[in-house]
Amino acid sequence: MKIYAPWEKAFNKISTPFEHFIHAQTTTGLLLILMATIAIVFANSPLADAYMNFFHTNIDFNVGEWKLSHSIHHWINDGLMAIFFFMVGLEIKREILVGELSNIKVAILPILAAIGGMVVPALIYLSINSGTEAASGWGIPMATDIAFAISALVLLGNRVSTSLVTFLVALAIVDDLGAVAVIALFYTEEIQMLPLALASISFLVLIIFNRLGIHVLLPYFLVGLSLWFFMLESGVHATIAGVIVAIAIPSKPKYTPLDFTHHTRNSLDEYDNYPITTDHMMHERQKAILINIKDKINHVSSPAARIEQDLHLPVSLVVIPLFALANAGISIDFKSITDTIIQPVSLGIMAGLVIGKIVGIAGVSWISIKTGIAKLPDTTTMNQIFGVSFLGGIGFTMSIFVADLAFLGNEELIFQAKIGILIASTFSGIFGIFWLRYMIKDSSN
């Protein structure tokens, strides 16, 4: 029997798309911690001014009299994050078509839990900030950072079951869908109708590409880029363009798996018919057969599946870490930190992310199970759902993103919001890991 070195084992292991997704989120979570820490250190060091000035440096694009000018911070939040939202859109689409959300009987519990985990935190926040200028921040504690939450579960190893990880993934995907809807409907500037109409026409063109069976990605990229620009000019947040483009990317392959199998077997039989030369060189026809098989491999996988897998690495290693570096840098005056924590904005976010997520996720799950609307996943207990509801309180990436939109131009409220997000996310993550580590039995036993 051949013995593989550890790296060879990893190379020979075949991972499913779901496993690729989990690995990518784990990588993102670890990098988020690193980059957020670096950002906070920079913002509270002698390099603070250089850090701030760098991200406020403008990058301009000029074509004749036309000019597009934004700061690096703005390009990251409106440009690079559109790529993140594009991948989120692909993930949501996959889960609805063939994933955990495709079977309503299986999906009903995480769907209801996610809705509870969005509504209750928003209501708690509003109960503290209603009637003030900070009331618009109700969307901040609704979000769950899927990368951080999944990373925490993966680090627990066998103490959590696969079904619990699946529950959290499905819940977080629904949560992302809710966040996208909230941003699109409630956190938009004044809407400009002409750019919005042009964005709608661009989306229609993408749908036509899809219906015509066009699987080449370049046309989608070019029209999608135009759609992003029109959304940017329309006042609707430009990142929503990423989700809209994802809807139009074809999710069906050109060839079915059975067609691929039949064709490949015939091609390999033809390949084997050619004699092996003494110098082990392939016949020209054999080279053509291999190229043809490679093309068929690409066509048996849908464009949506291919691009989602290709994007995991750049989004995990570049987009999200850059977002954390640009947005987590908070200059903290530790003498006044107590006063900041007790501000209504900070209190509302902390209460929403901690108490609201527990009541919303665990409470709605318990009610749904007791009333027979849903049932617990196999090998999962309410004790575990309670632990996961704490992990749902890790809001970080999406919460910071919404805070910048909700309090646009109000640096004081943004600062209070980010303090609340960091404290609540840190507490939720630590307590969730503690609960799942020490308060439940090892699922491998």
Structural overview:
With 445 residues, the protein is mainly alpha-helical. It contains 18 helices and two strands. It folds into two domains: 303 residues, Na+/H+ antiporter like fold (Up-down Bundle), CATH 1.20.1530.10; 41 residues. A two-stranded antiparallel ribbon has the order 1-2. A hairpin with a 2-residue loop joins strand 1 and strand 2. Helix 15 packs parallel to helix 18. The two termini are 30 Å apart.
Descriptive tags:
Na+/H+ antiporter like fold, two-stranded antiparallel sheet, 2 domains, disordered N terminus, 445 residues
Gist of the model:
This protein is mostly helical.
- Classify the oligomer: single chain
Order of helices and strands: HHHEEHHHHHHHHHHHHHHH
Mean pLDDT: 83
Please tally the helical runs, counting DSSP H or I stretches of 4 or more residues.
18
How many structural domains? 2
Proper CATH architecture of the largest domain: Up-down Bundle
**How large a portion of the residues is in β-strands, by DSSP E?**
under 5%
- Which regions have little confidence, pLDDT < 50, spanning 5+ residues? 1-14
What is the 3D form?
A: globular
Major beta sheet, strand line-up: 1-2
CATH superfamily of the largest domain: Na+/H+ antiporter like domain
What is the count of β-strands?
2
Helix content: over 70%
Q: Rg to the nearest angstrom?
A: 24 Å
Largest sheet: 2 strands, antiparallel
* CATH class assignment of the largest domain: Mainly Alpha
Structural class: mainly alpha
Termini distance?
30 Å
